[in-house]
Design goal:
By secondary structure, the chain is an alpha+beta fold. It folds into two domains: 6-180, no CATH class; 187-376, no CATH class. Helices cover 25% and strands 16% of the residues. The protein has helices at 25-30, 42-54, 64-70, 79-82, 87-96, 110-122, 134-142, 145-157, 159-167, 206-209, 255-261; strands spanning 170-171, 179-180, 187-190, 200-201, 223-229, 242-247, 263-268, 271-274, 299-301, 321-323, 337-338, 341-342, 344-350, 360-365, 371-376. Helix 6 packs parallel to helix 8. The structure holds zinc ion (2 copies). The site of one zinc ion (ZN) has 8 residues, from loops. One zinc ion is lined by residues 338-339, 366, 368, 370.
């Protein structure tokens, strides 16, 4: 299918050109030749977001998620207009900003949310695809208390919408607004931090955390790649509950990859018991010489993607992990459930940076003491 010219991008007619001084109409219409939106000024970036939302000249973009996390004000001028997109404009946006298009109406106003919810309630869109009505995904991405109330009303009337909400970590209770099962803002877990956070640990003894530290299919003790005090997410009083990201350094089997497909556990007498029955197939090998790298002074910080370059500020190290925010899945999105609701998203560990197999471990916790991890790599 030929890509339509930039001037006729599907979202274009839904997005008015602001009269305000900050707006650069050339950037907002054609991108203005900006090569890297993160090197632009905040006003240029705000203008450029219009170009992305209208359809980005038919080219792939991966900017929306970072903008929501680190510069949400650049989305603000457009959020209400995005809620008015027809299915053609939404489909096009979802192509250029897959899988994060659903964040495009982040913090849209209450009247815009009401109008979008009314359109969803009126009937199905002209075209639906397996992920379901994309307007519902957009509503989930607004992430205001008002949007969560409207989403829950809709989902109680149409149970298939409940699944869309759960896939984005929103629990629809029997009554009342949808409940976030994630914690914002997102924070990066960085090494060599000027203010180390004692609630973050790398490679504590697995026996301190697990009732049986051996792998499910391997005799070699597992490793706690990274663990976090859940008080850092407001999920428990300080020092009472931690979440481990679990890996293995066995050089003889693929325990590490296995740990990461999906593992869940319950808490028994203060230690974690893996749900899977042990089925030992590997004697375990620990003479590979592999060890976890132990980054010093782990602390929490914000992303610097949109901060202007300053030669006096050292380059931000690669994050050891991400605490809170929303999971950035590399493969199929998968949000585990427990106690009839989505589990709370803890964050993700960047296992490759810590010396293990290069994959991301996504951590989830439930109030009942259960936990789970999902691993993905590109
Ligand atoms: Zn093994
Ligand atoms: Zn539970």
């Amino acid at each position: 299918m030929p890509v339509p010219a930039a001037a006729t991008m599907p979202g274009d007619r839904f997005l008015p050109h602001p009269e305000e001084d900050w707006y650069d109409r050339d950037i907002g219409t054609t991108g203005g030749g900006l090569e890297h939106v993160f090197w632009a000024t905040p006003a240029q970036r705000r203008s450029y977001v219009r170009y992305i939302l209208a359809g980005h000249g038919g080219e792939r973009s991966w900017e929306l998620r970072e903008l929501v996390d680190w510069e949400p004000e650049s989305l603000a001028p457009w959020a209400d207009a995005v809620t008015t997109f027809d299915s053609v404009a939404i489909d096009h946006l979802s192509d250029v900003e897959w899988p994060d298009y659903w964040l495009a109406a982040y913090h849209a106003s209450d009247p815009a949310v009401d109008a979008l919810a009314a359109r969803i309630a009126d009937g199905p869109p002209g075209r639906t695809s397996p992920p379901g009505d994309k307007r519902v995904h957009l509503l989930a991405g607004v992430d205001t208390d008002h949007a969560l109330a409207r989403l829950a009303d809709l989902a109680r009337a149409r149970p298939e919408l409940r699944e869309i909400a759960a896939g984005h970590g929103i629990w629809v209770p029997p009554e009342g607004p949808g409940v976030r099962r994630y914690v914002r803002p997102l924070r990066l877990i960085l090494s060599e931090h000027p203010e180390p956070e004692p609630g973050l640990r790398v490679d504590p003894p697995a026996g301190d955390v697990l009732a049986d530290p051996r792998g499910t299919g391997c005799a070699r003790p597992l490793s706690i790649v990274l663990d976090v005090d859940l008080s850092l997410l407001g999920l428990a009083p300080a020092g009472t509950r931690r979440h481990p990201f679990i890996g293995s350094l066995c050089s003889q089997c693929e325990a590490d990859e296995e740990m990461a497909t999906f593992r869940s556990w319950t808490t028994v007498d203060g230690k974690l018991v893996l749900d899977d029955e042990r089925d030992e197939r590997c004697p375990g090998n620990d003479d590979s010489g592999h060890a976890w790298t132990n980054p010093v002074r782990l602390g929490l910080g914000r992303g610097n993607r949109y901060q202007p370059y300053d030669p006096d500020v050292p380059r931000q190290p690669k994050p050891v992990g991400w605490l809170g925010g929303l999971p950035e899945f590399r493969q199929h999105p998968f949000w585990p459930e427990c106690c009839d609701k989505p589990m709370v998203y803890v964050g993700q560990a960047n296992q490759g940076v810590l010396g293990g197999f290069s994959q991301y471990l996504y951590g989830f916790a439930c109030e009942c003491g259960a936990g789970a991890q999902v691993g993905q790599h590109t």
